[in-house]
């Protein structure tokens, strides 16, 4: 029995384009396999968010599904979409055979945590029932289910158990499971647990592609009834792959190193953000520091060097090595590069403002001013050449609010905003290693980080200590007592917690950033600005 | 039987401060009444968002509740908070008598739409049961329930029916119901329907105060078993009011005019944002136009004229009347005012950028540049004098993306961001009328709106037509066919839909804005940036 993974990359809302993509696959392959499986909500794209509240969108999706169904002649197609019935919207898998939608299998568990909001839109499945089909004369009872229905430990229904009790002898899971570090291992582990329990083969088909802050990594896979991995599809790209369940081979999971995972995920997220919003060119500021260097490296690998425009924007506080390192980086990557001093503009600002405020004493306001001049220059250039500005902030500084709103916080998308400072260093070294050259100047990696907004300034953090502490707070929700118990100094922890809390107003206006961890800033972390909980 | 509305204004997260506020009321009044009712989640503040995922927060709240309970000696206290049991978090009402928490009544319906995310945090009540108490020898069965549990039409359980069947003879509803235009009438109407059905008196106690984008309007009320309104508490402010259910009087609902509602709601939202984040001073740019004039008026009435700093920032494209109108406005309101030309800075930017981009031809980039210079100046001043910048964008232009990111979109909070352009005019006229003076210069109201970013520019919209069309799209989710049927030109509608869709990236980085409609931009409207649904 030949089962195909149609691991494709739809665009949210593009019902016509997605239909075409789906139809192309069906037309080309339906004679070569028995079942073609598409991921969760592949027709609408995922997450479609408040488009799911639009009657017109729901109706349009139904029409497109009917069009797709009409083209299915030679095999069975199982495809994720939405359906509306009796005032209820379902996240559903349509099972199509011989031009007919023979069944809808609705999602039972609606994730409503982290970045997920499915209770906002969907009604939970009313029944759990396998799908009976016949392939080459053999009756098969498929336990079709959707994404979260597999992860049943935190719910009080057991979907797979239910399916088995009703006769399922093959599991098929349609997923839109976003990437985070080592997520594939988690998925394989839970599927193996289920297979060991029920002794049925399991096909897991995942979405691929970038959608705003999220990246779907694909890596669909199959596991036989003995619990052996029999196939893993391509990672971070579209792929159509057929396996024969009657004649399977064992597959070996080759774990991707963490830095390669991060690099691949961010590259795909960035590439898709540009492609899916219709942009080619990127602009970024190059400070000579590590954050902008890494952002530049990823941009070049995702968008091509000719599409990347780097600008060094030195001030009177910029050191010589900053400009040199930026220049060297640009040369190494072969990008468009220009250097524009902000000195004259800066002086003119001070002059124009001097009647109203004190512009002579060093202050946060005077530091921010410079960052905002740079933000304005980069945005003006971006607007003029129809490019998108890349934001270069890392997760540690975003957490601590060590950034200027409308200054270095400008940008269409945060490229490394879910990498903490330690990961920034690690990934930078990996890039130099992986591509076999010193693409990112070693000086950018080894020198002391500095914003260079006043004389002799360096970042007021010990990143080796603070970067993991911040991650513990953001990802694991660790509180004061736990962190102190772990050995951190109480005052240090209190200071970090305070900084995180008081910088929420900045993050509310931050660009979206590509999510690669279990908890990134963005829609998965919802804190009030007015918040007087001091722990 | 004396029942008290403790309609108070807590601060989200401020468990210590909120406890003190609650204790002060109990200490002062518990001898004068039989029951004191506090609103939903008054102890934690509402919405507490992801604070509800912190173990430390939940534990702290429980401790504070115990402290409060310990002080209750002379009357019964019913108070909204949270409670954690068996790995489930509940939105609950604690009923306290004689230093004991005698019952928790958990919320059944967890709103998860618009701005609400309660399924993200809470578990639904496991049982529905009235609370038996005795007051002056009389046994009373109170149907305590929380906010949404009253609005049961879209759910498949009927909470009030359940309570009545189990003997409830008095309803008490604890709410955190955010303001939107004429919301009070909706609340009274549904309560009257329920009272007419069950013939039981009804006490509705609502939260008051501003929390980020939300405003809670208070206006708690009571209705007797015949369906007569017997009391309405103060609107838009804290209030402690006692009614005697054995000796009640009819009350008359004096409907507040819409403009007064809007003015009151926004003023409270703005005042609380400043107070609760620890700020006094506000900065804003005064263009001479209607949006900044109205924002200034509201700021003065909320924060006091001495705390408001207005800046006219003319360029070479600014008309004389712009500066005059701004100056006049500032004088009328008695605020701090200064005029700073952006011309020199603007020229310096053009000069510095001229090697890299075309700065001579008129373009969107060149227009945005000016708005961003102003944004930078206002932010520098704000940072330097420790003030918050007020954002002056209206809902219509935010919808259409007729604004500059990091330019006129700067600010800590959008004051009029949920007022469409028609409402902006209407409220401005109301202010002049209400305060009996031409506070807002008539010229700002009557002149043609213009961004003045190039010669002879005026806003490219017929606001009389486009402002209600945009509202229909945003609030009612109307689509192309419906709007065309209503008489709008198809191309106009398509253009508006396109503009709304393509400007999502700007709104993702917009400041929060005070919500006064049923659907504002902000957390209640969640659209993807990558969105190719063209209707």
Question: How can the largest sheet of chain A be summarized?
Answer: 6 strands, mixed
Distance between the termini of chain A: 58 Å
Proportion of helical residues of chain A: 25-40%
User: What is the name of the CATH superfamily of the largest domain in chain A?
Assistant: Carbon-nitrogen hydrolase
Q: Rounded to an integer, what's the Rg of chain A over CA atoms?
A: 26 Å
CATH architecture descriptor of the largest domain in chain A:
4-Layer Sandwich
CATH class wording of the largest domain in chain A: Alpha Beta
Number of helices of chain A: 16
Largest binding interface between chains: A-B, 88 and 89 residues
Share of residues in strands of chain A: 15-25%
Number of domains of chain A: 2
Runs of chain A with pLDDT <50, length 5+?
none
How would you classify the quaternary structure? homodimer
CATH topology of the largest domain in chain A: Nitrilase/N-carbamoyl-D-aminoacid amidohydrolase
**Total beta strand runs of chain A:** 20
List the helices and strands and how they pair.
The structure is a homodimer of 535-residue chains.
Chain A lengths: L1 E6 L7 H15 L5 E3 L17 H16 L5 E10 L2 E10 L2 E7 L24 E5 L2 E9 L12 H7 L4 E6 L7 H16 L3 E5 L1 E4 L2 E4 L3 E3 L5 E4 L6 E6 L13 H20 L3 E5 L4 H14 L4 E5 L7 H14 L2 E4 L3 H11 L10 H22 L1 E5 L3 H6 L12 E2 L6 H14 L7 H5 L16 H14 L3 H6 L4 H13 L1 H5 L3 E2 L22
Parallel strand pairs in A: 1-2, 2-3, 7-8, 8-9, 15-16, 15-18, 16-17, 18-19, 19-20
Antiparallel strand pairs in A: 1-14, 3-4, 4-5, 6-7, 9-12, 10-11, 12-13
Outline the structure in words.
Chain A is an alpha/beta fold. The first copy, chain A, folds into two domains: 2-255, Carbon-nitrogen hydrolase (Nitrilase/N-carbamoyl-D-aminoacid amidohydrolase), CATH 3.60.110.10; 261-461 and 503-513, HUPs (Rossmann fold), CATH 3.40.50. Helices cover 37% and strands 20% of the residues of chain A. Chain A contains 16 helices and 20 strands. Chain A has helices at residues 15-29, 55-70, 159-165, 183-198, 258-277, 290-303, 320-333, 343-353, 364-385, 395-400, 421-434, 442-446, 463-476, 480-485, 490-502, 504-508; strands at 2-7, 35-37, 76-85, 88-97, 100-106, 131-135, 138-146, 170-175, 202-206, 208-211, 214-217, 221-223, 229-232, 239-244, 281-285, 308-312, 336-339, 387-391, 413-414, 512-513. In chain A, strands 5-4-3-2-1-14 form a six-stranded mixed beta sheet, with helices on one face. A six-stranded mixed beta sheet of chain A has the order 6-7-8-9-12-13, covered by helices on one side. In chain A, strand 2 (35-37), helix 2 and strand 3 form a beta-alpha-beta unit. The longest helix of chain A has 22 residues, at 364-385. Chain A is elongated, with a radius of gyration of 26 Å. The N and C termini of chain A lie far apart (58 Å). The model of chain A has no long low-confidence stretch (mean pLDDT 96). The interface between A and B is large, with 88 and 89 residues.
